[in-house]
Amino acid sequence: GQSLEQPSEVTAVEGAIVQINCTYQTSGFYGLSWYQQHDGGAPTFLSYNALDGLEETGRFSSFLSRSDSYGYLLLQELQMKDSASYFCAASSGYSTLTFGKGTMLLVSP
Amino acid sequence: EAGVTQFPSHSVIEKGQTVTLRCDPISGHDNLYWYRRVMGKEIKFLLHFVKESKQDESGMPNNRFLAERTGGTYSTLKVQPAELEDSGVYFCASSQGRQGALEQYFGPGTRLTVT
Predict the structure, then answer these.
(1) Of B42, B98, B103, the CB nearest to A101
(2) For A40-78, what is each residue's pLDDT tens digit?
(3) Which chain A residues contact residue B103 at CB under 8 A?
């Protein structure tokens, strides 16, 4: 099985940079994904890491360190619309995606 | 390109009744997943189809839940008979390719309330 830990809430101001950390305990780990969810709506795919290192996608970047069982999502140039819940999710292979409990990001003016 | 769609958006039923949820994946996506989020809990994996075959159904809670994917297109998830603890939001997701588990596209969910 797998379990993931991430902070429950993070606050930041517009224009700032914020990092959301995720640690995982897993068997058969394959990769780590990040999803954004606004107000209980559809989770939206942001980024994934199957290999160690940094993946950059516009204002969002994701990092993975397999040796440390750790990853993070980096959000730059924060905007008010970035206020949402962010989930890390670990894959153990072809099928199963195990989600963390989510981090609520509050962006203030 | 149309995204993942789910029907209905909301369903309120009484304990003991039957409900069928439907998911239409993104056209051409072979992988289809069902998830459930109970209030206050994390999103939990239920099962995974590859085309019409069940690849992994380890997350299905019990035999009151039956999922099908006719012809490898849309999928249905039937709950019969429904219990109070089945309340929650049921998400469907689809993906394509070997990295499919890591890059999934979710539907808006069906909010199921069992009273």
Answers:
(1) B42
(2) 899 999 999 999 999 998 999 999 999 999 999 999 999
(3) 33, 45, 48
